[in-house]
Design a protein that fits this description.
By secondary structure, this protein is of the alpha/beta class. The protein has one domain (3-225): P-loop containing nucleotide triphosphate hydrolases (Rossmann fold, 3-Layer(aba) Sandwich), CATH 3.40.50.300. The chain is 27% helix and 22% strand. The protein has 7 helices and 9 strands. The strands form 2 sheets. A 6-stranded mixed beta sheet has the order 5-6-7-3-8-9, with helices on both faces. Strand 1 (3-10) and strand 2 (19-26) form a beta hairpin. Helix 3 crosses helix 4 (139-151) and helix 4 (139-151) packs parallel to helix 5. It is globular. 36% of the residues are buried. The structure holds adenosine-5'-diphosphate and magnesium ion (MG). The site of magnesium ion has 4 residues, from helix 1.
């Protein structure tokens, strides 16, 4: 097991509950999709898992540690990152940001780190874009560069918050295919609205709308994929 929530309750203001009684065990090498309406608590769930937020009640653990100690074992691709197209930063520099926490105070990146950049860029299909300006990439390429940044630290858990929200279907499919591949040796947890394209590929679907319901892909109603959310008919 890679981590767990046990009867977790969370509220930002101590009055309005955002997540209630959340329990789940995350296993190794799973590919999981998180779906649910806007404001349902999906991003909050990821932030709790990473230890950015603390639950009022219940327990969260990752690989047997409390979340803050485990952050370097987690790769995170946050929701909607808008970059100034003209901000001068290369793809290589974006990817190296993923190693900043491992850099000593007076550190420089070493040859081994630079080699790692090659490795992760290849794994997301961006080998030819290392020197390119980040702002010149297409939406799908930019998202893959951010995935490379999340991968470079060698995480056991890869979290992605709506990584395909602003890109076309083809680019989205390419990213799903990559994530499925990464899930062969790490747990991949992705928030998405595009369940139609994904339902058949994931191990489980986590439906989050204040509470959590874990669904098998086969039980996911087609309405979900069209954004029509209703209480699940059957859960695991
Ligand atoms: N920093 C915050 N302070 C107060 N309320 C917040 C904060 N972030 C999110 N919320 C509220 O918590 C609820 C869940 O938000 P969020 O987890 O972002 O949902 P989702 O990602 O499913 O759209 C929403 O009602 C949102 O307005
Ligand atoms: Mg969100």
């Amino acid at each position: 097991m890679i981590g767990s929530f046990k009867k977790v309750f969370f509220s930002y203001d101590g009055v309005n509950p955002i997540l209630e009684n959340i329990s789940i065990e995350l296993k190794e090498k799973q590919f999981l999709a998180i779906v649910g309406p806007n404001g349902g608590g999906k991003t909050t769930f990821l932030k709790l898992l990473m230890g950015f937020l603390e639950p009022q009640k219940g327990q969260i653990s990752l690989l047997g540690y409390q979340p803050p100690d485990m952050r370097q074992k987690i790769g995170y691709v946050p929701q909607v990152l808008r970059f100034d197209k003209h901000f001068p930063i290369s793809v290589e520099e974006i990817v190296l940001q993923g190693l900043l926490s491992k850099l000593s105070w007076l550190g420089c990146f070493k040859k081994a780190d630079i080699d790692l950049v090659d490795e992760v860029l290849e794994s997301v299909g961006l080998s030819d874009y290392r020197e390119a300006q980040f702002g010149s990439l297409s939406g799908g390429q930019a998202q893959r560069a951010l995935i490379a940044r999340a991968l470079i630290g060698g995480p056991d858990l890869l979290l992605l918050d709506e990584p395909t929200a602003s890109i076309d279907n083809k680019a989205e499919q390419e990213i799903f295919t990559l994530l499925k591949l990464f899930a062969q040796n790490k747990t991949v947890l992705m928030v998405t609205h595009d369940l139609n394209a994904l339902a058949s590929q994931v191990d489980h679907v986590l439906f989050i709308n204040r509470t959590l319901t874990i669904l098998n892909p086969a039980d996911v109603c087609g309405h979900f994929a069209m954004g029509v959310y209703h209480p699940p008919l059957r859960s695991t």
